[in-house]
Automatic annotation (TrEMBL):
InterPro entries: OMP_w_GlyGly. Residues 1-20 form the signal peptide. It comes from the Bacteria. Keywords: Signal. This is Outer membrane protein. The lineage of its organism: Bacteria, Pseudomonadati, Pseudomonadota, Gammaproteobacteria, Cellvibrionales. The keyword Signal applies.
Length: 219
């Protein structure tokens, strides 16, 4: 029995190693419908915004078998909110460039790394524009569990509390992957940004949150 148990453990370890020692490409795109909670200010002017229903996000990640070199992931999110009462817009669109390592890679997947979030948005108030264009370092984490019948579930996200940026951004998702790698994905994303120190005494304290649905691909 002891020999059988040891053989089983060795086989499981070998299977896990084979799975880890492959090149994988992960990609996806989804439509996001967030509501917005906002207290954006420019000088002494406050603004109330409605979320844009056309928020979108798409990503691609590359994983490889070289242990010392991190894996890479890029995600783009376009998200804006229109002012309720006058001409104006809050744009918190950004690109995430992430380097991460696979800590676990079997039926439970755990990735940890660092993200550079590049904001390229702005605040428009009908009179002047305030740029939101900093690059912010963030901690990245991703947990995913493989489920029966090619389903999976997990949570991934980024967070930082640095200088004038306090940001957290978490996505809970479930998905199903077909034999050829094409799948569907749905979930809920919460993106909170507290930003101070902008020009013209502007500040942002906003939460975008809501469901999303889209397509995924794994090769």
């Amino acid at each position: 029995m002891k020999k059988i148990a040891i053989a089983s453990l060795l086989a499981a370890a070998a299977s896990s190693q084979v799975q880890a020692d492959t090149i994988g490409i992960y990609a996806g795109a989804y439509a996001w419908q967030p509501s917005v909670s906002d207290s954006t200010e420019v000088g002494d002017l406050g603004f109330d915004f409605d979320a844009d229903d056309n928020a979108t996000s798409y990503y691609i990640a590359l994983e490889h078998p070289i242990p010392i070199i991190p894996n890479a992931r890029i995600q783009r999110t376009d998200v804006t909110a229109d002012n309720k009462y006058s001409v104006g817009e809050l744009d918190l669109s950004h690109t995430d460039a992430t380097l991460y390592y696979e800590v676990l890679d079997n039926w439970v997947h755990l990735d940890l790394g660092l993200t550079a979030r590049v904001f390229d948005g702005q605040i428009k108030n009908g009179i002047s524009n305030v740029a939101i264009d900093d690059t912010v370092p963030m901690v990245y984490g991703n947990v995913m569990i493989e489920l029966p019948l090619d389903f999976y579930a997990g949570v991934y996200g980024n967070a930082t509390n640095l200088n004038d940026y306090q940001v957290y951004d978490f996505t809970a998702r479930v998905g199903w992957e077909a034999i050829l790698g094409l799948g569907i994905e749905a979930g809920y994303r919460t993106f909170n940004a507290q930003i101070d120190g902008l020009s013209k005494n502007a500040s942002v304290d906003t939460t975008f949150k809501g469901p999303f649905a889209g397509l995924s691909y794994h090769f």
